Structure to design on (479 residues):
């Protein structure tokens, strides 16, 4: 039987808001060590995301794997060369212009390969409720089916099962900011901007707008610098503010523990 | 984005089941709560509250029931007008609980404030005789990521539908339960892009 450690997880990481809070939840609630996996799929914000990811990994003492997909994923404004990502301020009801078809399915396969190589059996995404309705591969159905498909193609016990999780999936971005602020997430070394201006977040692209809205609603000051002036109303996040959210996160952790237990595995314990 | 928890039975829903439904409701969406309760005479009660504990107390006041639909709302950051509307929406013929996004909702109805209102317009054309064909045509015409639970008062029918957003179901002691977030392994996934109609005259018993 292969030696597997449940003290670590491969964490698909973009250095965005969801990614950094995901790392905090894994560290502080799941008690496991995240190994960051950054994937270059030809995204337009590649340079900013990669530099921010490197800063985040270095500042937090985390291992970082970078993986380049040889052929750029086509069919999305996030990757295609001749189209701009929409910057207009609409009410968010338009069809998602930044949908990258099957992206997370490809990410899952890549994450699983690294997990297998490093004898790790947890791969973590950072989905959130706010974006679930816009991207079919960000839903809990996607995760459920992914887990079922991988288990159905695993010849246990010759091969160890790989579990795909998303500790952030039950929260809005606003709730993730609250959880992150409470757990001490490194927001300073994150980036969400599609169009950085002299290494500053533009503050007007859709991604910046939703991030700013989340911090404002959470009443937390964003730690990154913006090219435009933004007023954040900041107040400390107490345990009472996040108690219900932490309970929800713990429930998901317990569900993962039950799945692992079926295969004689224990979360956070070395299995050799 | 929301959670939806639905249960119906020929018998009154067990108090333990109602407690269970209320417990799992805030696992997805915690900004606003609502409930639709149908009594033995098919009278409908709607409850809305932002406070979870108050909401639970209000729901308990109207128990027992044979049909209970719960809905919790997460207000996404894309919704910058911060409209904090009721979760279950009605035009008095249809009661709609919706989880997901209708990207072109305003093309359906310019005056809407929340997506659920657009669903009311979509369901005005419902064709029960050809429900599968009608549903897929409506999705093609009005693309949407959704779980839709629609109670049709005129026809005593319950429509349960989903596109790519998930809906899970199980049967416990003759009580049918549907949930938009899978609580445990007793629940199975409804096929994506599918619809089913429940004739409540065959399920609920009139006084």
């Amino acid at each position: 039987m292969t030696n597997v450690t449940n003290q670590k997880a491969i964490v698909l990481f973009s250095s965005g808001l969801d990614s950094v809070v995901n790392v905090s939840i894994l560290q502080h609630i799941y008690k496991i060590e995240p190994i960051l996996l950054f994937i270059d799929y030809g995204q337009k914000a590649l340079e900013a995301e990669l530099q921010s990811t490197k800063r985040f990994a270095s500042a937090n003492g985390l291992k970082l794997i970078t993986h380049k997909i040889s052929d750029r994923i086509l069919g999305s404004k996030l990757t295609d060369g001749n189209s701009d990502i929409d910057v207009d301020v609409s009410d968010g009801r338009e069809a998602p212009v930044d949908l990258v078809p099957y992206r997370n399915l490809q990410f899952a396969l890549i994450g699983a390969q690294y997990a297998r190589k490093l004898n790790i059996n947890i791969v973590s995404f950072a989905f959130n409720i706010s974006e679930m309705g816009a991207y079919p591969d960000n839903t809990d159905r996607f995760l459920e089916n992914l887990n079922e498909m991988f288990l159905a193609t695993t010849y246990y016990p010759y091969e160890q099962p790989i579990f795909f999780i998303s500790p952030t999936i039950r929260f809005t971005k606003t709730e993730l900011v609250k959880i992150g602020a409470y757990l001490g997430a490194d927001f300073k070394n994150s980036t969400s901007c599609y169009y950085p201006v002299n290494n500053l977040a533009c503050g007007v692209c859709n991604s910046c707008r939703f991030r700013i809205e989340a911090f404002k609603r959470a009443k937390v000051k964003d730690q990154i610098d913006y090219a435009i002036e933004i007023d954040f109303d900041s107040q400390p996040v107490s345990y009472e503010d996040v108690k219900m959210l932490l309970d929800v996160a713990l429930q998901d952790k317990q569900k993962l523990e039950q799945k692992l237990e079926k295969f004689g595995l224990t979360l956070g314990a070395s299995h050799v | 984005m929301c959670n939806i928890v639905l249960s119906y039975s020929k018998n009154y829903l067990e108090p333990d089941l109602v407690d269970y439904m209320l417990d799992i409701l805030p696992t997805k969406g915690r900004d606003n709560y609502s409930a639709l309760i149908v009594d033995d005479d098919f009278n409908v009660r709607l409850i809305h509250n932002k406070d979870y504990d108050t909401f639970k107390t209000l729901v308990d006041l109207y128990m027992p029931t044979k049909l209970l639909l719960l809905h919790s709302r997460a207000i996404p950051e894309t919704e910058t007008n911060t409209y904090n509307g009721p979760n279950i929406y009605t035009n008095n013929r249809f009661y709609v609980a919706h989880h997901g996004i209708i990207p072109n909702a305003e093309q359906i109805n310019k005056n809407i404030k929340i997506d659920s209102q657009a669903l009311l317009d979509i369901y005005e054309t419902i064709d029960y005789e050809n429900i599968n064909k009608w549903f897929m045509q409506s999705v093609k015409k009005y693309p949407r990521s959704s779980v839709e639970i629609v109670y049709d008062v005129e026809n005593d029918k319950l429509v349960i539908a989903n596109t790519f957003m998930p809906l899970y179901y199980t049967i416990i002691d003759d009580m049918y339960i549907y949930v938009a977030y899978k609580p445990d392994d007793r629940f199975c996934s409804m096929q994506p892009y599918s619809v089913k109609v429940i004739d409540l005259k065959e399920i609920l018993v009139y006084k």
User: Anything to note?
Assistant: The domain at 4-267 of chain A is CATH 3.40.50.620 (Rossmann fold). Chain A has one domain: 4-267.
